[in-house]
Amino acid sequence: MSVEIHKAGGRFEEIGSYARAKRIGPFAYTAGTTAIEPTGKIHAPYDAYAQTKYIFSRTEAFLNEVGAELRHVARVRVYLTDMSHAAGFIKAHGEVFKDIDPVLTAVTAGLTQPGLVVEIDVDAVIHTPDGSIPEN
Fold first, then answer.
1. Which of 3, 96, 127, 135 sits most deeply, having the most CB atoms within 10 A of its CB?
2. How far apart (Å, rounded) are the C-alpha atoms in residues 1 and 120?
3. pLDDT in tens, the chain (136 residues)
4. Which residues form a coiled coil (predicted)?
């Protein structure tokens, strides 16, 4: 079984010894991702919809680095600073995952900086369109 690791250069990845995405065989996982741009600026402060769209674009890139795609996502976990942000999140989630339908869990959690309202991690299983698992 193959193992692939992708690090995105985040300031805590080396200190904390973690990867942004990891694939083990057909399984791929992403670390919790927020809407912090490469410059360190928060993307669309307090806007759950815009942050969710931004996070999913980053998530897609992280998955691609380890050979997975959004269509492979089986589970999404979202952490919202307040459930009042759920409507913006769910609208964006519906747009990104239309006809993919991963399972979804949402919880309330504190995030690291004011203005961040969404953090997301995903689990994926790399499979063919008919659902079978390809050989590595």
1. 96
2. 27
3. 789 999 888 778 889 989 999 999 999 999 999 999 989 999 999 999 999 999 999 999 999 999 999 999 999 999 999 999 999 999 999 999 999 999 999 999 999 999 999 999 999 999 998 889 987 6
4. none
